[in-house]
Amino acid sequence: MDPDDIPHSKLTGPLRRGSVKKNVAAIHVSGKLTLLQRKLSNVLLLNAYDALISKPKHQIDAQTLCMMVGYNSNDMETLKQSLRSLAETVAEWDMLDENGKQEWGVSSLLSYAKLQGGVCEYAYSPALAEKLHDPKVFALINLNIQRRFTSGHALALYENCYRFVRTGSTGWWDIALFRRLMGVEGSAYYESFKHLNAKIIKPAVAEVNKTSNILLTPEFKKMGRQVAEVRFLIKENPQLAMLDIDDGAGVRQGAVYGQLMALGVSDRLARQWIAEHGEDYVAEKVGYLKGRKGVDSPVRYLSAALRDDYKDAPAEAVKEVPPEVLAAAEARKAAEAEAARRAAAEDAAKAQERALRAQRLERIRDLAASRSPTQRDADKRLFLSRLEDEIDREEFRNRGWGAALLASQMAEFWEELIPGAFEELAG
After folding, report:
1. Residue 45 CA: distances (Å) to CA of 51, 142, 182
2. Which one of 57, 106, 183, 370 is most buried, counting C-beta atoms within 10 A?
3. What DSSP character marks residue 147?
């Protein structure tokens, strides 16, 4: 798996190193983390990355950390629970060392974490820090991509696959190992490969391919009639490759980068902000910040200004913004208005779809009620026999013809049973 991160959801950039000729090594992290906990792990790693080897412990403002991950900034209990989970989560590696000898190791993800005075302090074990810092072993995750994920399984799959992007394949994983990486080991339901494939692999691959900078294709190897191993072929997603950033050699020569350094922004964070937002937009927010008085934490304030697009800057700040920056801001406003229009249209379409679904469900219930008691029993048994997924079968047993999650299957069933049953419905 792979962590990534530094400040908030608006940051981007898997940090690219030179091409690596050695085989990519394997660090596997237990998959039993929630989506937010997994994101937290990545934020902490990117925050510490530059000093991962040189410093034994690392610090980050606790409220800023919550903001970046998506917690309520005052929800310290959730943060404590998440840090506790990371300290209890195991990272394991099994690889060749520099001398070609096999090396196996295990470590908790965090050796300790503490919250004091509004600051989160944490550390990694020396052995794990060494592995996490080595680009031949471990790949940092692009934060802008991470924030797009809505499924913990999808993010876990992405993390475990991304480091193999240059080799083009994860190599074969034993199915038991894959279940562990996805956090579903010990589940009797997912012992069935059919369930694992339908509920974990297919949805996770679909989300990775839709939202990230890589494209995955799963392949399976059988032993007898059972699927015993899985691997994922990997290639870059050309449509989202622009979310990556370079090593920053050119960015560091710019005036905006220098202004960010003067404000105390770290090198990596400065490059990520410029890569995602563009120099003009960052310069606009720097000008806004300079017009504010008494800002205690310029970096945190600037992060919020970039994320939330602070407007109405004081006159003295506006004067510092070049005309082309203001023009870019106007163009951005127009783009936002167009996006809002499209979102409204999508909302209207979804509302119409929901209304049609409700009409179908009502029609299905009317059709079922119109049947004789003997027919009703036979209808239920027949429909139940067509459901292959046990979760769907349980849903129907509990909710009968009111099972909204099965609306499309039920409509198909009744259309076959009574052709034209839904013709009079709108849309």
Report:
1. 10, 12, 20
2. 183
3. T
Sheet strands (E) in 4-161:
27-29, 58-61, 90-96, 102-108, 112-116, 119-123
State the number of CA atoms in the 13 A half-sphere of 153 facing the CB: 19
Whether the CB-CB separation of 417 and 371 falls below 8 Å is answered with: no
What are the two backbone dihedrals, phi and then psi, of residue 95, each rounded to the nearest 5 degrees? Answer: -155, 175
Distance separating alpha carbons of residues 61 and 38, to the nearest angstrom = 18
Mean pLDDT (the chain) is 77
Cβ contacts of residue 316 below 8 Å, gap of 6+? 290, 291
Residue 108 and residue 118 in one domain: yes
Token pair 């810092």 is found at: 133
User: 118 in a domain, yes or no?
Assistant: yes
Domains: count for the chain: 4
Residues 228 and 174: beta-carbon distance below 8 Å = yes
Residue numbers of the domain that contains 285? 246-321
Q: What is the four-CA torsion angle of 306, 309, 310, 316, rounded to 10 degrees?
A: 80
The reply to whether 21 and 91 lie within a common domain is yes
Provide the β-strand partners of residue 91.
29, 107
Within 13 Å of residue 253, how many CA atoms lie on the same side as its CB? 3
Say which CATH number the domain at 93 has. Answer: 1.10.10
Please say whether the dihedral angle defined by the alpha carbons of residues 55, 49, 34 and 144, taken in this order, is positive or negative: positive
Give yes or no: residues 259 and 345 share one domain: no
Residue after which a domain boundary falls, among 244, 275, 294: 244
Tokens of 348: 């209207």
Domain boundary among 122, 140, 158: 140
pLDDT tens per residue, range 270-327: 777 877 777 788 888 888 787 777 777 778 878 888 887 776 544 444 344 455 555 5
The per-residue pLDDT for range 171-209, each reduced to its tens digit, is 899 999 899 888 888 888 999 999 999 999 999 999 999
Please answer whether residues 93 and 28 qualify as being in contact, where contact means their C-beta atoms are separated by less than 8 angstroms: yes
Mapped onto helix, strand or coil, the DSSP state of residue 78 is helix
